[in-house]
């Protein structure tokens, strides 16, 4: 049986560190880090995430600014709001919840965010900085995965890592971070030939696909570390639903050396890293030293 990597507990530790630094910033410098979250439309899952982000932002002592806009908000109005948040000195981090409605050019909106306030790390300038190994805002989900991997392994140098999924928000930045840690990185996707064989080589498997339990335990090398990013809502008992990952947890846990559960794995770490990035952005904006242990 494998070690369960408890993202919920780890995330609580990260938030406690953030809270401590926020208190220090207030006491020593009279600065309160602030996070603005923009939600367009009323997708129920997004509503839940945004509410949870707002609650945790306040819990660590930061200011939370929520902007809920109608589904039919124009791109121009959204760009105007982003411009206003860029100028607001109380706002150190800006997150525009994705996905955006189809009539809005999501890339245009993301690239309108001031890169130093882009706590999602999605702006092309942060993508370029990460890709060239320079100091960037690092996307929250991959950062959370990296923190758990470092805590478990110490050094990742020379390990074979397979990332399943090549999205801009998870797969690609995850691969960049693992390369930065000197892993030998393979990125798999829907056109990959013989995925089971590719996964069998890996010391580290990061699954970010969005297909419920698609990775069976039989693909996992004995002792490998499995990071399950997938969040899939599937029918549960009666008329309830439940969350499952992209990995079949029960069978994978029999072979893996360590594995993250869903829920309670990567998800809580994502939100903790969003708060960590907001703190980092605030420190950089104020010319103060960055928090230790909370950046990539
Ligand atoms: N825990 C968290 O905090 C977060 C969780 N998520 C979850 O992570 C998952 C992935 O999210 P995201 O990256 O946005 O998803 P995308 O849909 O943007 O990307 C999915 C990737 O999986 C690949 N893929 C699809 N089918 C297969 C297959 N059969 N075999 C191999 N690869 C396949 C796609 O390949 P191709 O490019 O060829 O189409 C694509 O690269 C989702 O479940 C999402 O809900 C996302 C963000 C945060
Ligand atoms: N601009 C932007 N940035 C994001 O980071 C972003 C986004 N848009 N759009 C949607 C995805 C998804 N995402 C999650 C965050 C937390 C959990 C999380 O906390 N999950 C809990 C369970 C929550 C539940 O019960 O539904 C867990 O895994 O334990 C999940 C998913 C961030 N995303
Ligand atoms: Mg997506």
UniProtKB/TrEMBL annotation:
Any one Gene Ontology cellular component term annotated for this protein: cytosol
Domain Tetrahydrofolate dehydrogenase/cyclohydrolase catalytic span(s) in chain numbering: 5-120
Pathway in which this enzyme or protein is active: One-carbon metabolism; tetrahydrofolate interconversion
Residues binding NADP(+), per UniProt: 165-167, 231
GO terms assigned for molecular function: methenyltetrahydrofolate cyclohydrolase activity; methylenetetrahydrofolate dehydrogenase (NADP+) activity
Keywords tagged on the record: Amino-acid biosynthesis, Histidine biosynthesis, Hydrolase, Methionine biosynthesis, Multifunctional enzyme, NADP, One-carbon metabolism, Oxidoreductase, Purine biosynthesis
Annotated EC: 1.5.1.5, 3.5.4.9
Record Pfam families: THF_DHG_CYH, THF_DHG_CYH_C
Catalytic activity: (6R)-5,10-methenyltetrahydrofolate + H2O = (6R)-10-formyltetrahydrofolate + H(+); (6R)-5,10-methylene-5,6,7,8-tetrahydrofolate + NADP(+) = (6R)-5,10-methenyltetrahydrofolate + NADPH
Limits of the Tetrahydrofolate dehydrogenase/cyclohydrolase NAD(P)-binding domain: 139-284
UniProt function note: Catalyzes the oxidation of 5,10-methylenetetrahydrofolate to 5,10-methenyltetrahydrofolate and then the hydrolysis of 5,10-methenyltetrahydrofolate to 10-formyltetrahydrofolate.
Subunit structure: Homodimer.
Family of the protein in this entry: Belongs to the tetrahydrofolate dehydrogenase/cyclohydrolase family.
Name the UniProt record assigns to this protein: Bifunctional protein FolD
């Amino acid at each position: 049986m494998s070690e369960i990597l408890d993202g919920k507990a780890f995330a609580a530790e990260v938030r406690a560190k953030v809270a401590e630094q926020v208190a220090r910033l207030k006491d020593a410098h009279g600065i309160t880090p602030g996070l603005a979250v923009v939600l367009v439309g009323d997708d129920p899952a997004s509503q839940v995430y945004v509410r949870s982000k707002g609650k945790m932002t306040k819990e660590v002592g930061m200011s939370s600014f929520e902007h809920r806009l109608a589904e039919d908000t124009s791109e121009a109005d959204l760009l105007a709001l982003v411009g206003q948040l860029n100028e607001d000195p109380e706002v150190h981090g800006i997150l525009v919840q994705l996905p955006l409605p189809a009539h809005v050019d999501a890339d245009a909106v993301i690239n309108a965010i001031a890169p130093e306030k882009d706590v999602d790390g999605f702006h092309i300038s942060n993508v370029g900085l990460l890709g060239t190994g320079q100091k960037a805002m690092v996307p929250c989900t991959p950062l959370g995965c990296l923190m758990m991997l470092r805590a478990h392994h110490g050094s990742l140098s020379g390990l074979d890592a397979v990332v399943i999924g090549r999205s801009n928000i998870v797969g690609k930045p995850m691969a960049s971070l693992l390369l930065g840690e000197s892993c030998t990185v393979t990125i798999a996707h829907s056109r990959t030939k013989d995925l089971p064989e590719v996964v069998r080589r890996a010391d580290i498997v990061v699954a970010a696909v969005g297909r419920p339990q698609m990775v069976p335990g039989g693909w996992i090398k004995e002792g490998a570390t499995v990071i399950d990013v997938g969040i899939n809502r599937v029918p549960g008992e009666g008329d309830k639903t439940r969350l499952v990952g992209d990995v079949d947890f029960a069978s994978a846990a029999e072979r893996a050396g360590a594995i993250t559960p869903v829920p309670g794995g990567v998800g809580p770490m994502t939100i903790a890293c969003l708060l960590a990035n907001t703190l980092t952005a605030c420190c950089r904006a104020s010319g103060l030293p960055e928090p230790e242990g909370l950046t990539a």
